[in-house]
Amino acid sequence: MNPESKTFLQQLVETPSPSGYEHHVQKLVRARIQPWCESVRTDVMGNVFGVRNPDGRPRIMLAGHCDQIGFIVNYITDEGFLHIDPIGGVDPVVATSQRVSIMTRHGLVPGVIGRKAIHLMDEDDRKKVPKMHDLYVDIGVSKKEEALELVAFGDAGVFLQPYIELANERAVSMAFDNKMGTWIVTEVLRLLHGKQCDACVVGVSTVQEEIGLRGATTSAFSIEADVGIALDVAHGTDTPGIEKKKAGDFRVGGGPIVARGANINPRVFELMVATAEAEGIPVQISSAARGTGTDANVMQLSRGGMATGLLSVPLRYMHTPNELLALEDLENTARLLAAFCAAVKKDHDFTP
After folding, report:
1. Pairing of strands 227-235, 307-315
2. Maximum CA pair distance of the chain?
3. pLDDT tens per residue across span 69-89
4. Which residues are catalytic?
């Protein structure tokens, strides 16, 4: 991965953007894609659109959501502890004792999720699984009034872990789900820059996916694309304790995962696999008996329908502050999608 692209990836994942509070990340996205697009705009939801070759046909929508799971402040005790509600699918077991960063009018305020020390727990305490409403954030104050000088009700935050690299170019960070999808969209726009392409490519950094695919719903409606490819993560199942009969067999470092099933247009799937073969890019195939629970869901059903595909990157430890992926999978996914966009001709028929 070239150093500039890697630096941008790190900036994305380390910039807090819980669902509904994505504006800081979207500022980074707009600056990144500006040189490679004829136009860049942001809608009232906060979705960012980068348009390449606006008069081309067909119109291809690329969607990677930039929001992450997190929490929102809903109550403050007299002693200044913050009680929180989850934003998205937060596992309270994983959240316990994590450092956090809260987005406030004063900037980022640090804190930690409190946890009773094991020395003070009785046997029953040790067996209990914490519930989200039992968790609280300690920001270092001792009174409610002090807390309100720093934070406000409705401030949102994230569980804070920095980007690091392990052996074999495996990277670990919070929020690869799904800022790596946003990164892929921007990388495709970079790879297509200066190249001949029949299609109009609209790269979208969508918002509020984690709370109901909301940004993709509105952006798909406004774009009126003919073809749409969603970028997201999928479970890497190459770790202990996962039953592959249920979850499938997907390896981190094994290449992009190309979905097939009811949510996927068969012609899009066939062209994606053929493009991967032509480019020498390894892929893994997943099946989806119904909707995928990704932005591809709402893209497929927008207006009169969209020929939809889904590319996923295998990820370990999803929805934790320490998600793990292979950088080579990110690069290969971007290469594959750029080649796919270039392969789509103006008279391409995606009718099954």
Report:
1. parallel
2. 70
3. 999 999 999 999 999 999 999
4. 209
